[in-house]
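As the next step, I wrote out a protein sequence along with its fold in token form, included below for the reader:
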Amino acid sequence: MTYKRKVSILSALVALLVLIFILSLVFDPENRRSDAFAWLDSSLMYMADGIDISTSGGSISLSRKNNVWLVNTETGEFPVRQSRVDDLFAALTHRNVYPLRATSSEARERLGVADERASRIVIRGGAGLPLLDLLIGGEDVFGREVYLRRSDQNHIYSGEDNFSLFLNLMPSFWYNLRFFDDISIDSVQQVDITLPGAQTVILRRSGIGWVLSSGESLDTTRVEAWLRTVIEAQGEDFLAPHSVHGIGDIAGTIILRMGDGTSRTLLLGSRTEDNDWMATADNSPFTYVLADWNFARLFRESTYFLRD
């Protein structure tokens, strides 16, 4: 057998062994575990009554009472923006492909999913039992995916980073600071605006436009843009519970009067220690912080609505 022929045979054997090795990786059961799955079964999210989130910087806790999510803080419980919770559950219940990356304890440390190092999202239900305890580790080398592990399993997966957003421990990230919910512009037929130290301005719907109580026509586009601002307005923060039962002297009001005879009211109170405003809505037990810039765009004088 010539030398060249021996080299050809050896090269072919090496290529065959490389092919067998690659196929073993592809078809190995451990490495095929990248089927699409969800971290939380969608049927379980309706059982959820608690969410605990923790990182190296601390922790925050949410609880559901009477079907309303609340943020638990040192100063009390405050309502959560429901869309935030919905987005979290959407990320957890969405089926996605998560390739299996490792199973060893050494890999847990290296990839940041060891119990003592990882960030954590725990969903609780019933008697506080965990429906999901998800550990979120470091990013991959490209920064597009993170490593993930269930706390009771050794398998470490990687996946698109849809979870780090919800590791925000600032209560304001979760707060629902809206004054009003479920009001449409078309349902509002009249608005009464009382500014600090001024008389009440009354805007009335007239046909497809708006007029002052005196009958003077207004800029409809400007009125309805402002009205949308009022309906969607929110405060900057909540005041501690000791302020809940009073906002001081009433400095101003905005009353939205509906076509069905009901009304909703935004109440402006005294100044806070930081020189912001106290505010509340007639259907809310909470006192909100309203900054000057927010006050200026909500409490408008009649001249603002006039046609140019």
